[in-house]
Amino acid sequence: MGYEAPKGVPTVFDPSFTGVGQKPGLEIWRVEKLAVVKKNPDDKAHKGELHEGDAYIILQTKEVHGALQRNIFFWLGKDSSQDEQGVAAYKTVELDQSLGDEPVQHREVQNHESDEFLGLFKNGLRYLEGGVATGFRHVDRDAYETRLLHIKGRRNIRVSQVKLDPSSMNEGDVFVLDAGKDIFQWNGKGASRVEKSKALEVTKRIRDEERGGKAKIHLIDQGKDDDSLFWEKFGVSKPTRIKSAEEGGDDAKHSRAAAANVTLYRVSDASGSMQVTPVEEKPYKQEMLDTNDAFILDCGPAGIFVWVGKGATKEERAFSMRTGMDFLKTKGYPHHTPVTRVVEGGETPLFKQNFPGWKEPNALLPGQTGIRKKKFIKKQFSAATLHSAGERQKATLPDDGTGKLEVWRIENFEMAPVPKEQYGHFYSGDSYVMLYTYLRNSKEEYIIYFWQGNKSSQDERGASAKHAVDLDDKYGGAPVQVRVVQNKEPPHFYLVMKQFGGMVVHEGGHASGWKNVDDKDSYDTDGTRLFQVRGTNEWNTRAIQVDEEPKSLNSGDVFILETPQNVFLWFGKGCTGDEREYAKQIVKRVCPKRGASFEAITEGQEPKEFWQGLGWDIDTQGRPTYAEFKEQAIQEYHEPRLFQCSNARGYFYVEEIFDFDQNDLIEDDVMLLDTYFEVFVWIGQNANPEEKKGALQAAVDYVKTDPSGRTVDDTCIMQIKQGFEPTNFRCHFHAWDDDMWSKGMSYEELKAKLGSEVEGVDAMAALDEWSGNKKYPYELLRDGPVPETVDVTAKEQYLEDEEFEKIFKMTRAEFNALPKWKQNGKKKEVKLF
Q1: Rounded distance, CA 27 to CA 74, Å?
Q2: Which 8-state DSSP code applies to residue 510?
Q3: pTM, to two decimals
Q4: How far apart are CA 566 and CA 554, in angstroms?
Q5: DSSP structure string for 121-164
Q6: Domains of the chain
Q7: Which pLDDT tens digit goes with each residue over 688-738?
Q8: CA distances (Å), 33 to each of 55, 56, 423, in order?
Q9: The CA-based dihedral angle spanning residues 467, 472, 474, 477, taken in that order and rounded to the nearest 10 degrees
Q10: Is the separation of the CB atoms in 293 and 309 below 8 Å?
């Protein structure tokens, strides 16, 4: 490399790095004369317009649950010099150090940018010719040379100028011919509506920013629209053949290394000299990453990660990054192979997925307090906690759980209604289907829960899923479907059960329809039952029946023992005051007739009758043994991840969308939102039938292949449809807009709207439109959408006189002479009312 970075760590950082990264947003530097120059927010770089002859450093700062997270990208244009690339790399390290070595570093190369980098620029990335060393051309809006721009990508788009020749084009992408006063957007027949709409945003920006709005846009769909003027401005005869989409390349093609080819290297100077040694043991585990060293995770052409432990020496930090960069050459990887540096505690999802069972120590859910029980610490109970506990969590739920509920149990593959007095009672050997109806913005919305007991048969589970789909169809696809597995119920499910007194799970169930006729229904009928009480607040507390024997007890929980003579509430020494109060509420649900007269006993002070109820004679057998501690897991927080799901290649694959917002939910797509404990399958209204059919199975496959160790049994999977998103889905999208899709225009509507756009707007012409002097075809006025200048209460006034007489069978004067009620009747007859 022509540029040699200074040795050691600088004691004084570049002045332009002072005070950066303190608020959400992008900060951008360009390498100019081997120094970094910070660009103002109005610079074109902030719009995603980067020069091919330059190198840039981009600092992304974002707020995640009240804390700032930072990523540093250094981008290398294809024509940038080795010296400029060296300065960008070194200054990236310096910027990182000025921020306490906390940010994640990413190396990006033109034409091979990561999705995470492309996601920084919502309007797409555009390559500009030249660079600071070769000089820039001033944009003269009245002077131009004809050029051809290639717009590629389904979601994160790139715009690059290509040779003005038909051989540069293909049927799978969108191309813009900038001919000065005329700007043509040519849409290949293989381009999707999403691509066309995204490209149109670029086309309009060229018109507005480079032509001052003084250019006319022409939209051409290959094979559908007249393209004679396009080829005339192109300067060539229309070619007989345009390259196919396949020849143009796959937008979503990413090189992915198989797990077997991933190699982990330790970088350490503990022996007195710097050594790089491979880690032989596989599969790789999180605990292999020693905090005192640095590591390089080599994923082949798919990317290289440099992991730096908190205790790594300065030399190890610098050497590991340099070695990671050298891998590109020594291993023969392409120059564009991404190199990402992560620090301990700030690992990215793409890094962590290479370590099965990755754990986030002390990471909590937003608003959640982690509590690990110490040995029998007494806590003062406050009744106020019954109201305040869980309020933040409840705020993200669809409603308060007081809507209308209908419950069916699966019996002989059919749905049998459950009596309302039994709502909230479940049997572990059964499966259930529930329809919950609630109001949001004065509109009825629906959730279909299908609950599957952990001892229900496979055919019952299958029948519950089938009936959930049938019920969904009955309501026109409006409900949200939620598969619920026993003991993994989502918070809103518990909240719905609270209106019926809480949730109780009993042993036993109805015999499966596939089993032998001699297989009778199984229920506990001996009069003695033991329930374990679980919950963290007054609405998610539930009672689960367990085997009535001493070994079912543990000191960390509360248990309810019902015998023919008594009802005991047993408080383990490790349970909290809150748990005791919640148990006093749920016992009335477990034992409706006798629950109010329970006998409270503390561990260690049990009467003989209690042990006798558990089949234990304490006089002859002594005190039984059971678990004396409860391991209370702290639920870890995992950053939500959004994926686009598709089967377009003939197999299921996912493509991650970084730094997402609501605009990334595209109507043509099936999306997967992974919040770890819940996986949402979002169905866009234009998703194809194959994608809809396979969506839930795709989510199941996704969870099954997750190396973190979770399973489909402990992950709640929901299928939701566009326009019917529940609150716990919407809360992951900043500033959710309920009206976004209803007020948005499709590509076809945008094309129709642009059809009437001209170079400028004449004031008198505009006045004519608003005054009703402008005329429109009958079909447009009847079927819509009508222009905003049309008075919808007087659509007939916008018909040409000849068409008016044809439609109404009278002259305009004769119509105007009619009474108002007769005019309205006539308009109703011709569907203009």
Answers
A1: 12
A2: P
A3: 0.41
A4: 21
A5: -TT-EEEES-BTTTB-----TT----EEEEEE-SSS-EEEEE-S
A6: 15-128 (3.40.20.10), 147-256 (3.40.20.10), 262-353 (3.40.20.10), 404-594 (3.40.20.10), 632-731 (3.40.20.10), 775-830 (1.10.950.10)
A7: 766 666 667 777 877 887 766 777 777 788 878 888 787 678 767 755 666
A8: 11, 13, 74
A9: -160
A10: yes
